[in-house]
Hints:
By secondary structure, the chain is an all-alpha fold. The chain has helices spanning 13-19, 27-34, 110-134, 140-145, 154-174, 179-205, 212-222, 226-280. The chain has a domain at 110-253. Helix 5 runs parallel beside helix 8. The relative contact order is 0.10.
Amino acid sequence: MATTAPDENAPDETVAAETVPAETVPAETVLAETAPAGTVPPADAVTPPSATEPAGTVPPADAVTPPSATEPAGTVPPADAVTPPSATEPAAPAVVYVTAPAAPRARGARGVGVLVAILGTGIFAALYGLLATLLAPFLPDVAAVGGLLFTATPAFWVPVVVFALAYILLIVIVNRAGWWAHVLGGFLVAVVVWVGFIGAQLIAAGAVGQALPVVGAVVAVQLMNPVGFLAAIIAREVPVWVGWIVARRGRSARARNEAARAAYQKELAEHQATVSGRTAV
């Protein structure tokens, strides 16, 4: 039997087998042994997820890594780490304050009425002084002091002041009333002016503070004094002449008040409807 000689060109299997290391060590193990303590491994050295776990698998709650022991207590997490509120959590109701419309202020005729009363007082004073001077021959009290000098006596200026106060008071009371209020109120003003004239005569006679019989005697004489009647008649007529101005102002004020009140009622109804709608929502 012939023996085949070994081929010199064949690879040396024995030598190759000796050069192969007996056990291959993974790179991760070597890195873990050679790296110093506290060194963070590179990103490519992290062990990839198991091939058997499906993608997107959420780790269990007990597998979550606890916070580091070196992290101080009370550390506030970053803003992007705060868990947003649940979409099903109801929002807190917002409080909205709605101002109710203010009620309109009623307009009157008192301001214009006072101006008209001052105008009427000027008319009264002019007519009273003029007629007393013209009728001086028939008026012994006026003739005794002499014409225009009568305007400097209490019998003239006291009725003028009383007329101004009485007519202003009448206007304040009637306010927006019609012309009829000034026609009827003129009688009251005339009576007050007549009483004021008698009081002025008491002052002129020096009977103020005297005994009752003295005062009674002066009053009895002045009750029939024609100058007092003249003052009362003029005081009665002046409110009738100028009262229409105040009455016209009062009529326009009433119309504006009614329009403002209607607009206020409409605005108030709209406001209540708006508030009711928001409350229902």
